[in-house]
Write a structure and sequence with these properties.
Blueprint lengths: L6 E2 L6 E2 L7 E4 L4 H6 L4 E6 L6 E7 L14 H11 L2
Antiparallel strand pairs: 1-2, 3-4, 4-5
């Protein structure tokens, strides 16, 4: 998911490779009106080991829930049955 590239802190300039155990999910703060209108923006982040500033790594897409497959009327079976009766 993430490359092993070094990241640089924009505040102190320290370069480091983020470790998997230090990566967490964060969310941008929104006003009350924005919370009602749009989904929150989530992203993966890590803190700088020297100054503690948050470094944004990658945006996260919202989860999509797919409904279960519903049982539908089998129209194809009726068509094949009708075609067999003509013989």
């Amino acid at each position: 998911m993430f490359s092993k590239k070094k990241k640089e802190c924009r505040v102190c300039g320290y370069r480091f490779t983020p470790e998997r155990k230090n990566i967490y999910t964060a969310e941008e703060p929104h006003s009350a009106l924005e919370m009602l209108a749009a989904a929150p923006t989530r992203f993966s982040a890590v803190d700088c080991p020297i100054c503690g500033c948050q470094i944004r790594l990658a945006d996260r897409a919202p989860r999509v829930t797919v409904p279960e497959i519903t049982v539908r009327h089998d129209a194809d079976a009726e068509e094949t049955e009708g075609g067999e009766d003509e013989d």
